[in-house]
Amino acid sequence: MVAGNAPVIPRSLFDPVRTITSTIAIELGETAFNTPHFFSLFALGFILFIIALATNLIAESLFRREKRSFTL
Amino acid sequence: MKKSNYRRTRFISNIWFIVLAIPLLLFILFIGYMCFYLLKNGINVISWEFLTRPPASGMTAGGILPCIIGTVYITFISLLFSIPIGIFSAIYLAEYAPNNIFTRIIRSSVRSLAGIPSIVYGLFGVALFVRTMDIGLSVLASGLTLGLMNLPWIIATAEEAITAIPGSFREGALALGATKWESIYRNVLPYAFPGILTGILLAVARTMGETAPILFTGVTYFTRELPRTPLQKFMALPYHLFALATQHDQLLKVRPIAFGTALVLLFLVLLFDAIAFIIRMRIAATNKWEV
Fold it and tell me: Quick check: is A44 in a domain?
């Protein structure tokens, strides 16, 4: 809502952007069920999930390494 | 020589104290200013009529009763769905699950699901509840979507609360001949309860404020009647605020009502937090233990 909602690659910190989440929020209202557009929104959701999963796995591996270095 | 050394150490220590305290102070100032700003702009429209009447004359007058009821309704349904499943899953993960690769995958999936944006749950809710299960745009569909969103939070916090209880609590009961479930039910859950409740309350606060998951699963800009059955559309506070702040055609005229709505939402969340805080204090006072 505050980001500016422009689907282009930003060139500076002050350019408006459009995030994956707001793309889903904006376009979900205007797509029909089971169309390629609808499925591509699911693909966007999947990308977000992959990002969350990757962040989590990195955090967990860091945590595990920390723990090992404390006990040894 | 030694004295100056001590003085220098203390000086550095003080500097670090200030450096670490400033961010917290800035944060408190920021939050305080936000609350003050909301209060200043919203307090004038708050009245008994504002809380007990539906909106009138194109949202420029009247109250927000349908939004309050809608928000409480979907929060209730989402908790009805996510609390039992969440707590049982957490008990299984903490107490019964074998420590193998499969459990570890489940655990990190739960953590990841807690981290994905709420609009993705909205997307999933549209596909599953609204379309595939054909519930339609309704309180029920929104409540279930929010429940799904809450579930990983509740599982993760409840599991942590249960694992934090020392092993001797379980062993004591087992040594006296209790079954595994009896030891968990009598000796672990009562002590883990404050932690579990904290997780649930964080989930409540988040549920009340979320707009994205309900946006396409049942919330509506305006409805004349209050939702009588869970299969009707409803109005909700966060969406009402969003609509008044960005979508209305007389933005400046409805601005005070938008601030009033924000204030009511903030108050509702604080109210739930306060109730939880009191319950937790009570339980913590009766459940004292020494490790």
Answer: yes
- The tens digit of pLDDT for each residue in A12-69 reads 777 777 788 888 888 887 777 788 888 998 899 899 888 888 888 888 888 877 666 6
Write the DSSP assignment of B198-252 as a string of letters.
HHHHHHHHHHHH--HHHHTTTB-S--SS---STTS-B--HHHHHHIIIII-SSHH
- Residue-range definition of the domain harbouring residue B77: 48-286
Q: How many domains does chain B have?
A: 1
Does residue A3 register a pLDDT over 80? no
- Of A21, A38, A52, Cβ closest to residue B119: A21
Q: Is B3 part of any domain?
A: no
Write the DSSP symbol of residue B45: T
Contacts of B112 in chain A (CB under 8 A): 49, 52-53, 56
- State the complex-level ipTM: 0.78
For residue B276, tell me if it sits in a domain: yes
